Amino acid sequence: MPRDPEWKSRSTVLHDDGRRRCWWAGDDPLMHKYHDNEWGRPQHNDRMLFEMLCLEGAQAGLSWSTILNKRRTYRRAFDGFDAEKMARYRAAKIAALLRDPGIVRNRLKIEAFISNARAYLEIREREGSFDRFIWQFTGGKPVRNRWRVMGEIPASTETSDAMSKELKRRGFRFVGSTICYAFMQAVGMVDDHLAGCSARSAARGR
């Protein structure tokens, strides 16, 4: 998210297209599209859930806009986040990924994607679907918050703490509680669109 000295007091911004968006969406049209059409909307597709969990981990220490602008190349580099293919990556593939300028060339994050793919496949086999497993943390329903300003939105919660702990136990990496909460926001497990945001009602399916 963008930062300024008074970011905690920021709420929504009215843009030239007539839409009022959460302050973090900034001025990037790609961020606007993501904010309007993805962030906060319940996602139940296993592959997309896996992709977003990986990408949120890739964001660690970086801005989401950096990762979002690389998402297309991430999908190319990681075979469309096909976990079965990713689980078979070996040293030669890792070396190739470390030379790919279209992704964040961090060995630990790349290796985490691979170990996460293996853990994801194990969960899917045991639980029937990753969707069923991950949504259990909110009882299968989105948590609807009513924040007014940025400073009210938590960086983590008891729920994201529990998710992080369980994912780590299952073999996932780069899944700290803050990353898990960002993931929950991204896939609509929590709706943190601020009051007055044009996407708020759309995210709630109304």
3D structure, described in words:
With 206 residues, this protein is mainly alpha-helical. It is built from eleven helices and four strands. Helix content is 50%, strand content 5%. A hairpin with a 5-residue loop joins strand 1 (12-14) and strand 2 (20-22). Helix 2 packs antiparallel against helix 7. The two termini are 26 Å apart.
Short description:
By secondary structure, the protein is mostly helical. The chain is built from eleven helices and four strands.
Question: Could you list some keywords that capture this structure?
Answer:
Endonuclease III, domain 1; two-stranded antiparallel sheet; about 50% helix; two-stranded parallel sheet; 4 strands; about 210 residues; mainly alpha
Which secondary structure elements does this structure contain, and how are they paired or packed?
Blueprint: E1 12-14, E2 20-22, H1 29-37, H2 46-59, H3 64-69, H4 71-77, H5 83-86, H6 91-98, H7 107-127, H8 130-135, E3 143-144, H9 158-169, H10 177-186, E4 190-191, H11 199-203
Parallel strand pairs: 3-4
Antiparallel strand pairs: 1-2
State which percent range the strand residues make up: under 5%
CATH architecture term: Orthogonal Bundle
Any low-confidence stretches, pLDDT <50, length ≥5?
A: none
Distance between the termini: 26 Å
On the 0-100 scale, what is the average pLDDT?
Answer: 95
Strand tally is 4
Give the biggest beta sheet: 2 strands, antiparallel
User: What radius of gyration results from the CA coordinates?
Assistant: 17 Å
Helix-strand pattern:
EEHHHHHHHHEHHEH
CATH class: Mainly Alpha
Number of helices: 11
- Label the overall shape: globular
Structural class: mainly alpha
- CATH topology descriptor: Endonuclease III, domain 1
Strand order of the largest sheet: 1-2
CATH homologous superfamily, by name?
Answer: Hypothetical protein, domain 2
| Proportion of residues in helical segments | 40-55%
